[in-house]
Amino acid sequence: MEAAGNPFADPGLPPHEHRQQDIDERAARRSERTIALLFTVSMLATVAFIASYVAFPVDRIIYVFPLGHISALNFSLGLTLGIALFTIGAGAVHWARTLMSDVEVADERHPIEAAPEVKAKVLEDFAAGAAESGFGRRKLARNTLFGALTLVPLAGLVLLRDLGPLPQDKLRHTKWGKGKRLMNYNTMLALRPEDIAVGSLTFAMPEGMKESDHDFQTQIAKAALMLVRLQPENIKDKRELDWSHDGIVAFSKICTHVGCPINLYEQQTHHVLCPCHQSTFDLSDGGRVIFGPAGHALPQLRIGVNKDGYLEAKGDFAEPVGPAFWERG
């Protein structure tokens, strides 16, 4: 009567019901084989993920009902990675529900700071739980779990490849090369020395480039050139003079600070100014930095005149264009 009238009475625990695996070792072994199968499928799916990444080109499109036309690479990566992760989770859940101990344990609440005997009991319970989980006894399930957990991180490592293609030496080279004529960026006509007046600033690009090219913006960001005609006696740097033609010097238009295009020229001082952060370069002294945050001088392009009287490059820039990067040295 007292318990029935007390809404906070301890109802106790229902009688424990044994699972089939608890009383039948054959059923337990079937569950272990099922778990091992799930973990093995996870390993195979991870291998398939890596194989799909290598096998399918980025631009291959396939038809999958009812999704329609989709990327073969994205579909295969999503499917295999999903299977790999799902089967690890399903195997772990099946292990917990069929083989690990499911005996309910009631314990009294205790202060936050555990007493020594409580700590000892926790360690004892942990050891008992580890033993009851079958982790040491169920070697097939345990080893396939280790295999699945070892392989599935490889999927993440493979995805690191999509951070971008390896730069190799692409940052060191531009479209400039020996014999390429200098084309006026605005008129797209080949430049002659007489087209460039003393004190003028002219922008040029390599022969053969067209704005319709799919990689035009990428290439012009490295190859953009500015031409200035100085009096030869005003050129202070010997190499700059040797690489010029009749006072015409050619420097990269790309600022060596953060890659902004330079377009402000001061005739009297022969200085060019980057409009982004005011880095200033002296075009009469090897393009060196005289003000601002830029870290190094503007790269110079060696130029000359071909047999037809047009300005041409004698090669590519001698150093990388634009801001410094980790491969520079």
How would you describe the overall organization of this protein?
It is a single chain. This protein is an alpha+beta fold and 329 residues long. The chain has 2 domains: 20-105 and 112-163, no CATH class; 170-313, Rieske [2Fe-2S] iron-sulphur domain (Rieske Iron-sulfur Protein). The protein has helices at residues 20-23, 25-55, 72-98, 116-132, 139-151, 153-159, 216-223, 238-242; strands at residues 61-64, 68-71, 182-184, 201-206, 225-229, 248-252, 264-266, 271-273, 280-282, 288-291, 300-301, 303-305, 311-313. The chain has a 5-stranded antiparallel sheet with strand order 3-4-5-6-11. A 4-stranded antiparallel sheet has the order 7-8-9-10, with no helix packed on it. It has a two-stranded antiparallel sheet with strand order 1-2. Helix 2 (25-55) runs antiparallel to helix 3, helix 2 (25-55) packs parallel to helix 5 (139-151) and helix 3 (72-98) runs antiparallel to helix 5. The model has no long low-confidence stretch (mean pLDDT 88).
Can I get a quick summary?
It is built from 8 helices and 13 strands. By secondary structure, it is of the alpha+beta class.
**What do we call the CATH homologous superfamily of the largest domain?**
Rieske [2Fe-2S] iron-sulphur domain
Main structural class:
alpha+beta
Tell me the Rg in angstroms: 36 Å
Mass-distribution shape: elongated
User: Taking all residues together, what is the mean pLDDT?
Assistant: 88
| pLDDT < 50 stretches | none
Strand content: 5-15%
Number of domains: 2
CATH class of the largest domain: Mainly Beta
How would a textbook summarize the main sheet?
5 strands, antiparallel
Give the SSE string: HHEEHHHHEEHEHEEEEEEEE
Helix content: 25-40%
The order of strands across the largest sheet is: 3-4-5-6-11
Query: What's the total count of β strands?
Result: 13
CATH-scheme architecture of the largest domain? 3-layer Sandwich
Distance between the termini: 89 Å
Total number of helices: 8
According to CATH, the fold-level topology of the largest domain is Rieske Iron-sulfur Protein
Keywords: 2Fe-2S, Cell membrane, Disulfide bond, Electron transport, Iron, Iron-sulfur, Membrane, Metal-binding, Oxidoreductase, Respiratory chain, Transmembrane, Transmembrane helix, Transport
Family: Belongs to the Rieske iron-sulfur protein family.
Transmembrane segments: 35-55, 75-96, 140-160
GO molecular function, one term: monooxygenase activity
